[in-house]
Amino acid sequence: MSHPKRTWAGLRNGSARRLSGKRRRTEGSAATAMQGEEVRQMRRAVHQFGLVGGEYYDSKEERLQQILDRLPADSGTTLIFAKNAQQASGVVERCKRKALLTAAKGRAERVKAVFDGAGDEESAKPWACGRCTLENAWMLEECSACGTRRGFFPKVSVVTMDEKASRTAQWTSSCQILINYDLPRSLSEYLRRLTAIDTVESFNPRFPRVVYTFLEEPQLKNRSAKDLVELLKTTQRYVPAAKKAEIDSALGLIDTTEEDEDWEEEEEDDEDWDDDDWEACDCAHCRGSILGSTSYHPLLEIPDFKHKDMSGIEVVRLPLKALEDFDKAVPFIAPRVSGHSCTLICLHCLNVHTPWDGWEQFFAPSELTGTMRVVLVLAEGVSWHEYPDCALLGAGGSAWIDVLDMDSMDRSDMLLERLVDHEAALLNGHSERIVLMGMSQGGGQSMLRFLRSKIRLGGWIGSVCHVPTAPHTPRSRDPLLVSSRPTVNRSRPVRLLAGESDCVFAPSLVLSDAARLRDVGGFTDVQVEVRKGLAHEGWLPDAPKTKGITRSNSFKDADTALRRAKSFAKAEKACPDLLFLQRHLPIMVDFATPAPETC
Predict the structure, then answer these.
(1) Cα-based distances in Å from 529 to 3, 23, 170, 464
(2) Closest by alpha carbon to 465, among 429, 428, 514?
(3) How far is CA 182 from CA 186, 245, 442, 513, in A?
(4) pTM score, two decimals?
(5) Angle at CA of residue 513, ends 512 and 516, nearest 5°
(6) Whole-angstrom Cα distance, residue 56 to residue 571?
(7) pLDDT, tens only, 485-523
């Protein structure tokens, strides 16, 4: 007896029912429409994931506390979906009490300062409201505009999601931030929770709609995680490059399709390595155990122009650790040529001490005719600070929150402050001729020094990095909100080069931080350039070619013009951040004014 062939339509009355061509097209259209609706839902939000639990990662409670301590006070409602609502609610209550205690302690210190007569002009500066950004008088406990109290804790609610109620549970309010304390049991459940996200689109990048999901490492092999990976990959096909990079940052953490092959290769490569090798840096500066060194580089040739005899770039390399006993290092980094026009203090990226080695001549803009001083600071262990979320170091990136460790950042910042003061003294107090620069991790660390500087600086330039502010820093330690924060540099230029295809610090994160720098920090000259085809590590293979410097027949010295054009074409490919620096440095430093005498 032959059995009828089964079809996707199923069985009816014990026999198979074949689909007509029209029916197949209709159901195919329905499936396509359903997939299109899923993609539209995914596009509406920023998706970030965090590995928790196990031997190497923070527990769920610790990660949730890190996030809640960092939520900006002006953020919208946060909903936490959790199976164990009691555990999640306990973390929320602890964070609320912590915020209230911090506010009460600050209030007591201010009252004591008034009675002791210690409320001097420096400490009695106005405070910025975290919700409406208005600056209020020092002693006010509530914002005079919106009524928000100092130390305000954002609105956070916990939704219980047990297995029986997960399909029928409803939520009465919408939210800006959604936290999945537990991985949803299915893709449909993940999508259903997305309906809690506020549908009213915000045109301010400071208020992204976010879904942050906790996962334990074994869950990466689950069906729901794999389905989510496939939907994210499908969504990538229908979004612009910036959103695609944002999704790449999520996939880098949860996509395990190629992990097994990569892991086998890494194991073979790692057999000859020990723990000390992973932490050691093999660059020439570390192998030499230098206290400090100085090299001199001539300026690039300019057609039909002759530079002065002593013009050039003095490059100083200084280990950060040498600043702990700075007096010993000072003789090694003393200026060899007097009267430099400005000082550029540069902080490198994570794990690389030498991103600019071989390209030192491109630190100087064409407007420079004398000398300039470039100080390349070398972080100990090739890292400026520690990372509480260690999973992001090895894979993925940050599309919304980059959990920063402020204690280790403060230690580096204290040493960098000594360096800035030293360089200002060399310029006879003309600190406005000092410009801070950094890339990736070094960009965030140098920005922290710029925000905290009590002396006027020339400006700040960064590449593929972001601002160290909430939600990356705790609210109580946000450099844009702390009491008595310096405001001397709020009118100075801030320039940031971001990659449209950067999946480590997605463009949406960078633009959100820049908007917060303007709105909350009060900085008036902030510009971000999102460059097409640029990723975190450099240009993509299929990146559009940038227009280089063309050869002009007006130059008498045609050979010099050609050599210069070729050099800039190579530099644009290898170090676009230095050409970005050349373009913006002249608006921060007046090269037309004679340089001050070196002290």
Answers:
(1) 66, 50, 42, 10
(2) 514
(3) 11, 25, 34, 28
(4) 0.87
(5) 90
(6) 40
(7) 899 999 999 999 999 999 999 999 999 999 999 999 999
